Amino acid sequence: MGLGERKIAREKEKKLEEKEGGGGVQECSGKREKYKKGWIGSRGWGRNVEQCRTNKQKLRMALTLTDFFKLVGAVIIPPLGVFMERGCTCDLLINILLTCLGYIPGIVHAVYIILKY
């Protein structure tokens, strides 16, 4: 991507952000990061929930009913739970390998993937 293409891409991005009514660049943990709508904090000054968080500030999502079914599937057939969570990815291949090496490592990996994502 050349310099001219980057400049055009930045201009398009700025126009899109102006249309959406938010966006820009903010300092977060010493890095410049883009943000969109979704501010938290008083008077709009705060960190964006999605794009601007440090390792200590990671947000955890609560378990849902679908996660329960994925966990049950992971206990019965570990690759099934991983497939339901991540689809046909490298995680599925790793889980199949672990399940072939031992049933318990496959279950542990499947539960880890389901709880992580």
Automatic annotation (TrEMBL):
It holds the Pfam family Pmp3. PROSITE patterns: UPF0057. One of its GO terms (cellular component) is membrane. PANTHER family: HYDROPHOBIC PROTEIN RCI2 LOW TEMPERATURE AND SALT RESPONSIVE PROTEIN LTI6 -RELATED (PTHR21659), UPF0057 MEMBRANE PROTEIN ZK632.10-RELATED (PTHR21659:SF42). It is found in: Membrane. The keyword Nucleotide-binding does not apply. The keyword Cell wall biogenesis/degradation does not apply. The chain crosses the membrane at residues 61-80, 92-115. Keywords: Membrane, Transmembrane, Transmembrane helix. Residues 1-29 are annotated as: Disordered. This is LANO_0F15060g1_1. The lineage of its organism: Eukaryota, Fungi, Dikarya, Ascomycota, Saccharomycotina. Belongs to the UPF0057 (PMP3) family. It comes from Lachancea nothofagi CBS 11611. Residues 1-21 have a biased composition (Basic and acidic residues).
